[in-house]
Amino acid sequence: MNGSTVAAVSTPNAPGGIGIIRISGPEALEIADRVFVSVNGKKLAGSKGYRAYYGEIVFSGEKIDEAVCLVYRAPHSYTGEDTAEINCHGGLYVTKQVLRAVIESGALPAGPGEFTKRAFLNGKKDLASAESVMALIGASGKQAAAAALNTLEGNLSAEIKKCCDEITGVCASLTAWVDYPDEDIEELGEDRIAAVFEDVKSRLDEIVKRYDSGRAITEGADTVIAGKPNVGKSAVMNLLSGYSRSIVTDIAGTTRDVVEEKAVIGDIILKIADTAGIRETDNPVENIGVGLARKRLERAELVLAVFDGSSGLTAEDSDIIADCAGKCAVAVLNKSDLPLKADKRVLEEHFDRVVELSALTGDGYDELKNAIADKLMTGDFDPSAACLTGERQRACCVKAAEHLSDGLEALRSGMTLDAVNVCADCAVDALLELTGEKATSAVVDEVFSRFCVGK
Ligand code: GDP
Fold first, then answer.
1. Domains of the chain, with CATH numbers?
2. Whose alpha carbon is nearest atom 11 of ligand 1?
């Protein structure tokens, strides 16, 4: 249990109907009592958990707001600690004033994700479930939210625990046999060990595969709209983001900023980079932009290659076609509202999906949407299956599968069984890092640093 008591505004930094100031820690209720006066005169510190009190926030003799204060008693709270949640009116000024009063009354400002970190440290949830909290908050669609909720409720952790138990079961028998060669312990057949390793490895591979193919739904696919100037790339980008909620962000730290826009199309999230046009140029500043665009194209998960259907394809278009070779790409033959002059068959030779579109009128949008869903293979996404949240968990899963492969290799090449045992131990360690049971404090700190303050 952490010794300090922390507080933060847990609702968004915007005006709203209600603003919530959360206080958690051993002194949460005493601190709340210093700013909250209930109408029935009862002190929160003497209260049972799961109680709501109506009253006023008063600080330095001045009334700040009317409020309802919810009381949770350890361990039956989100963090596992005593917690008070002050529900006041959701004005920016009011919530800040209440938070200031709470901090001046003895609470420390909570860091990013501190409440969830405390929940993890107090054993309320494991690291995988804690990470899914952020995924749930950030979910842009129904399927992404359902997948995050399932992980939050522990279905991934349960599956990972099963994998660990199976490997540990084999390891325990192996260890006993290796450590006590003189004892009459039945030697575990190599076939049996291999079968367990293979089975667990294939389940882990499946989890990683599912994460990779579902990324477009849970996290968003890095998408590049490529094409020579004036084919309608901006128009396509506007069309896609116009049909969805879109958020424009500047990715800082680049000489020439790449603007990223998030387009939500059904359940698919496209993280679209507006990449300034890929073409050779003498302008050194523009060249930096072109270099960035190329890099972005190289690692894009989806390329929308735009061509102007109202004029013939050119050498510059051929360069774009070449850049798309081997990539997950959809060819967009834009300006379909004008007479078709480009040779569609040339595109069909290089792309398995060619969509005629008018970015101007929106004609062909549904076909484009279907082509994108097909290319990203999101149709099979099953949010109820064990689902990884983020690259950290993926890396742990991949590492565990690799150690199991090494173990299988050691078995096949006739290495000693303690070598096999080491591989199994490493695989289990990687899985325990995923659930947080064996994560270093640096890993834990890194995970929670990505959270927002107040969660
Ligand atoms: P970019 O340089 O590739 O980003 O091209 P823009 O999106 O700026 O478009 C170039 C020009 O083509 C503009 O004048 C657009 O209005 C026009 N344009 C874009 N899409 C269409 C379309 O579907 N039909 C027609 N007729 N014009 C379009």
1. 6-125 (3.30.1360.120), 132-214+390-435 (1.20.120.430), 221-375 (3.40.50.300)
2. 230
